[in-house]
Every structure is written in structure tokens, then in C-alpha cells.
Predict the 3D structure of the following.
Amino acid sequence: MHHANAFYGHADVLARYCGVADPGPIWGYLQHGWNLHDGFAVGHEFTPGTPKFVWSESVRRRGWSLGQRDYVVVGAPWSYLLAMQPKPPPAGEGTIVYPFHGWEGQQIVGDHAAYADEVRAMEGDVPLTMCLYWNDYERPEIRKIYADKGFRVITHGRRGHMNAGGDTDFLDAQLAEMSAHRRVVSNRLGSALLYGASLGREIGVYGDPMVLQNDHAVLGGMARQLRLFPQLHTPQVDPADAQRVATSELGIDQRWTPQALRHRLGWQDCDPLPAAETAPRPEEEEPRGLQ
């Protein structure tokens, strides 16, 4: 299995939804984060004929325009985590903040202190949680900036690398935190904002967008986000706009049934989970195919 398939516990979430134990590798490449490119990291090498499991029709269309094929729209793993919840979360309190982050190979350049001040000024006198990506969280000087300004500072865990060191409950931790808050905000669009909108949380995008070192021009940067989603770049996003974009970009309306997804991922012969651990089952539907 390509190691990115396990990022953020995605493969584990899908296995739970499919009701399989020790599922083994996914036969294909799984999109691991929201982007405005082809759904995968720039320069990602693909084995010809191997499925590319992506979150949305918009990703599939962009991939096709770039000459890629073998796309299968399945929706985001987050969508399947939501399907396993017994009921919608209750109203939360305060605001959780997800600043634009880099990764192990590219760092973010920006003024964290100024951003903290802007968030406090905009959100007012409410509980504030700053959720940092793990490599920012492990830098005490960054944690201290937010903690000194009254933020509760957390991380959801590590995404992992080369099938090691990842927290398989990453999305579960994210769901729990978002469910406890009323608002989800960031300085850029990203997976977290869409996740928050899918939960019915208020979302907002504002503040210094910060810069990624050696960013790839093909991704379009902030300019492409502003051009494609102008309605989301405001401190108070209209709930209908937020829900509509989240449903489309996360492929919530593209979700497969457990049986169909299990077969498509190559898990049809895996042992089932014990009955007590099996996720709730939506109604069956016909499986979709390669596009």
C-alpha cells in the first residue's frame, strides 16, 4: 500500500466503515488532503492502470485535464467517519483555529503573534483553541506564542510517514474537538474548514495567509482559492454556502456503501470485524467504476 494511504488514519477509518479487520493494503492511491490540483502531492508518481481514489468530481475533472486517468470518486474518509456517528454533535462553545501549515519537508513563514492577536480581536471573549500541525506543535516557541495569548494549544497527532509513526485516531480526535466548538476558522481554506462546515459549525477564513517555503506554483496558492471560492473568504461564511461547498468538495454525496467500498479497495476477502465493532450500515447501492 502506498504509505500516503495511511495518513491521518484514513485507511483505518475506511476499514472500520467497511467492517473489516486487518484489511491489508488498499489497491490504489487514496487522496489524503484537500487541494486544488489533481488530488495528490505535486510530482506523485503513479503506476499506470492503478486506481486513484479521490474525494470529489472536481478533483477528477482537474486530474483528467492534466492527462491523468483511472480516477474513482469515493468521497473523503471524513465522510465515512461521519456516517458512523450515531447522531449529529450538539452545539459547541468557542472557536477552534487551524492555521495554514507546512509539513516535514516545507515550513510555514508567517507572524504567529500577529495572527493570534487578529483571531482574538475577531472572535472576542470566547474560549479559543489553537490546533497546530504536529511539527509546529513540537516547537515550544510557537506553542508559547499562542499559550501566552490565552489559547488552549493542541495537536490531533502525527500523520505518519512510510507506514510508521501515524496516529490512527487522528480523525477521531479532530471530530471530537470540532464537535466541542461552535466555530472553526483558519487563515486559508483547507480540509479542516470543510470538515467543520460538514458538521454544521460556523466557519470563517481571515488573517495573514502565511507562506509555504518553496511552494509549488501549479497549486495556485491563495490566488486560486480566492478565485474559485470567493464566498468563503470572510470571517462569517454564510452557512448555506459553507454546507454546499463542503458537501461537494468532501464528496459526501458520493459516499459508497460498506460492501461496495470493501470490494473496490480490494478488501473483499478480509476477515470481518466483531459485530460489536461494526459501523452502522447505510442502504446498499450500485458500486461506481473507474472514470
